[in-house]
TrEMBL record:
Matches recorded under Pfam families: DUF4806
Protein name according to UniProt: DUF4806 domain-containing protein
PANTHER family: SI:CH211-262H13.3-RELATED, SI:CH211-262H13.3-RELATED-RELATED
Protein source organism: Phaedon cochleariae
Domain DUF4806: 257-323
InterPro entries: DUF4806
The organism's taxonomic lineage, starting at the top: Eukaryota, Metazoa, Ecdysozoa, Arthropoda, Hexapoda
């Protein structure tokens, strides 16, 4: 049996900025070479392609475009080798995502704005800053003012009127001499009046005080309110910092990402195991990266963590004297962040990491070629 393979491009992808390519048996294509049958399980795609599996009824149909046909799978893969970036589920992206930029993923934290202080009641200040008018005691130094508010709410201006209105003697309110400076008049009620029969003594306008003094009192009250707000913000900031939820100071280790050698990677693993604050910061960093689906999420986090030179020295199981990352606390932390957001399974996460590490050398060579051009 002649096992030929065709190189195809998937059409109508959800992401218009990327095209996916693959090498499939020609038996997966229809007579017009525009429809391709595709296994529903991503984990079995590579196996079915290598074994030249015959399509089944439950396979999914995709619109494709055939670019070339070859006699062997190796020739078809060599044809697409220049365009492959990340292999996952048998497909490859023609256009890889842009190299990680820190400003692209780290969004500013939403900080709750503090509520403004309540409107200040000026009623207790206005009587002190009123200017003298024609009724001021300054114009009538010999006249004594006593104001009572009783049942009939009369304004009484003499001691005789007080006796007629209330039936008792009241000590008048007298203004002190203005030469000694501004004062607030004191109010004294007769000692022989019981609490039940004692009339309410209304407030009496005090002599004027300098405008600068009143403004100083108002400014002091505003300053005290602002100091209270600042103190509350400082308390909340300290609590968030202790819990590792607020990155007030950037951690020096996180600033070295992506890692360039195994020594830095081992150092980061040791810090994650011993420093809970750094562990939370790294988790929050992965969680804020995001992506279009679980595969894109994992790839973006891996690019944020490792350079191609570093990834070339690692593998999932540590074969061929590579550094084993299957049990790495950094990869476990990355998996927790992706699973919380996308619900990815452990198997799919493993496949994605394996493919990304396996193609590190190709990505590095392609990057060098692009820079030389």
């Amino acid at each position: 049996m002649n096992k030929q393979y065709s190189c195809i491009i998937f059409c109508n992808e959800s992401d218009v900025n990327e095209e996916s390519v693959a090498e499939v048996p020609i038996t997966w294509l229809d007579e017009t070479n525009t429809i391709c049958k595709w296994p529903p399980s991503p984990a079995l795609v590579s196996l079915y392609i290598n074994r030249y599996k015959t399509p089944m009824d439950n396979w999914i149909s995709y619109n494709v475009k055939v670019t070339a046909t070859f006699a062997t799978l190796e020739e078809a893969r060599n044809f697409n080798k220049g365009e492959s970036n990340v292999s996952c589920s048998g497909r490859r992206l023609v256009k890889s995502p842009d190299i990680y930029s820190p400003d692209e993923f780290l969004e500013p934290r939403k900080v709750k704005r503090p509520t403004l202080p309540p409107n200040i009641d000026h009623s207790n200040i206005r009587p002190l800053v009123q200017s003298y008018n024609e009724d001021s005691p300054e114009n009538y130094p010999d006249k004594v003012y006593t104001v009572l508010q009783g049942p009939n709410r009369e304004c009484i201006e003499s001691e005789d009127d007080i006796s007629e209105a209330s039936g008792y003697n009241s000590e008048p309110i007298s203004y002190p001499s203005m030469e000694s400076g501004p004062h607030v008049a004191s109010v004294s009620a007769p000692a022989d009046i019981s609490k039940e029969t004692r009339p309410h003594v209304a407030s009496v306008r005090a002599p004027d005080i300098p405008k600068e003094t009143a403004e100083s009192c108002l400014n002091d009250r505003i300053i005290n309110l602002l100091l209270d707000i600042k103190l509350e913000i400082g308390t909340l900031t300290n609590k968030l910092t202790e819990q590792g939820l607020l990155n007030v100071e950037s951690d020096p280790i996180l600033e070295t990402l992506p890692l360039k050698n195994l020594e830095d990677f081992r150092s980061l693993e040791g810090k994650v195991n011993t420093d809970p604050i750094l562990k939370k910061k790294l988790y929050k960093t992965y969680e804020s990266i995001g992506g279009n689906g679980s595969r894109d999420f994992v790839i973006r986090c891996l690019k944020r963590s490792f350079t191609n030179e570093m990834a070339e020295l690692c593998s999932w199981t540590g074969q061929k004297d590579n550094y084993k990352v299957a049990d790495s606390p950094v990869l476990k932390l990355l998996y927790m962040a992706v699973k919380k957001t996308t619900g990815v399974s452990e198997k799919d996460f493993e496949i994605c990491v394996k493919d990304w590490l396996r193609h590190a050398k190709q990505r590095k060579e392609r990057m060098l070629k692009k820079n030389n051009e």
